[in-house]
Amino acid sequence: MSRTGFPDAPACARNREPILAHLRRLFANCKQVLEVGSGTGQHAVYFAPRLSHLTWHTSDRAEYLSGIRAWLAAEPAENLREPLQLDVSGEWPALALDAIFTANTLHIMSAQSVQDFFRALPQVLEPGGLLVVYGPVKIDGAFVGPTNEDFDRQLRQRDPHSGIRDLEWLDRLAQGAGLVREELNDLPANNQLMVWRRVSETEGSSNA
């Protein structure tokens, strides 16, 4: 539902149910989840009350926090926390998390910011914790559908440092941060839901 005067991302209403169907399963045993790049806050106010067993932390850069606070005030949930100011290339909050979720962010960030994002994960994501990313990616160098190729062109015209990322590049960044990909799920509108897990030191040693 959109609200007059509130920041509104129409895609949230279209993609929230397919995403939630996976989050119910993936986050069934999670307790502390950080949403990186909460944007308008619409995903948070929809997901949190439907995943009431966990604490949902919102976050974004400073300019987006007032909009997130407006949505949280209008649709409060006991397990939904006030937004944290977070620039992925800066200092991260002192949290111990078993899950991180981010939607439609990695293609908006610069390539350097994507690298900074993955590099910071071991600071906050506990061993065994999940990173769940929703959005468009290229697979084996190819766009998933012609609309994504058009979208990528628009992104790069607006900001040459943005663009739809290669899944294989994301896998390498994840591996460098001690994570391994466990899932690649097809979602509507040529989007993917990717799941990486931070391996424990024992697992890392056994794979060495």
Give a structural overview:
The chain is an alpha/beta fold. The protein has a single domain (10-207), classed as Vaccinia Virus protein VP39 (Rossmann fold), CATH 3.40.50. 37% of the residues lie in helices and 28% in strands. The chain has 7 helices and 10 strands. It has a 7-stranded mixed sheet with strand order 3-2-1-4-5-10-9, sandwiched between helices. A 3-stranded mixed sheet has the order 7-6-8. β6 (137-139) and β7 (142-143) form a beta hairpin.
Write a brief caption for the model.
This protein is α/β, with parallel strands linked by helices. It has seven helices and ten strands. The longest helix is centred in the first third of the chain and has 17 residues, at 10-26.
**How many β strands by DSSP?**
10
Beta content comes to: 25-35%
At CATH level 3, the topology is Rossmann fold
Structural class: alpha/beta
By CATH's scheme, which homologous superfamily applies? Vaccinia Virus protein VP39
Spell out the blueprint of helices and strands.
Blueprint: H1 10-26, E1 32-35, H2 42-47, E2 55-60, H3 65-74, E3 80-85, E4 97-103, H4 111-124, E5 125-135, E6 137-139, E7 142-143, H5 146-158, E8 165-166, H6 167-176, E9 179-187, E10 191-198, H7 201-207
Parallel strand pairs: 1-2, 1-4, 2-3, 4-5, 6-8
Antiparallel strand pairs: 5-10, 6-7, 9-10
